[in-house]
Amino acid sequence: MAKFLNTSATSYFLEELIKRAKERLVLISPFLKLNDRIKELLEDKNRLKIDVRIVYGKNELQPEEINWLRELSYIRTSFCKNLHAKCYLNEEACIITSLNLYEFSQINNNEMGVFLSRNDDSALYKEAYEEAQRIIRISEEGRISFEKIDKDNEKIETIESKLTTSKLAKKLGLKTDDLEDKLIVVGYLETRDGKPFITVKGKEAGGEFRMGKHGPYFLWPENLIIERMGGN
Fold first, then answer.
1. CA–CA gap between residue 225 and residue 79 (Å, rounded)
2. Which residues does 23 contact at the CB level (< 8 Å), separation at least 6?
3. How is domain 3-141 classified at the architecture level of CATH?
4. Could you tell me the pTM of the whole model?
5. 162-221: CATH topology
6. Which of 55, 60, 159, 163 has a CA positioned 20 to 30 A from the CA of residue 118?
7. pLDDT band at residue 43 under the 50/70/90 scheme
């Protein structure tokens, strides 16, 4: 049965939800400024190679947040315009709440929320999960990076776009099969039973496996070949 959560209970159950994620973790929050405890838990999920998706809605990330996120290969971030929902879920439970993943809110604000169990509240969990997936689909995904502009001594946030293998091949003037061969040579892909699979090295380089309407495909940073393979 669903549980009502006050401010302290929301923080507690959120930590437990992150800790207990074994397969996937989705964190949807307009504002994003994580406290040290949440960062520690997410770093552990990254070490365990758990698929983590963070969707945020305010394009105001601090340099320290950007730097920290850049180091985590298994945590993917997306920007969703007009996001106001706050929802956190793993494969077994979900929290819908007023609480942002924002350090100030967790310390100073009065919050409330509802905890749902996949086993006890299956219909509600399913609806929340499907809505979370919809928000992810309409979000703009990218690996977060920043560059320093020396003359102004300011840091700006940029989103590194990603391309499918075929689009990346077209950009580089290659055939898709030739690019796949190169990705295998450098260790970003490997073949099993004649089919390509992304490797840990490929994921660390920013590559992603996706399942679309017409079957599986891969996404790559558009500068992957230039930086890693010399454009050959």
1. 25
2. 50, 51, 90, 91
3. 2-Layer Sandwich (3.30)
4. 0.61
5. Arc Repressor Mutant, subunit A (1.10.10)
6. 55
7. very high
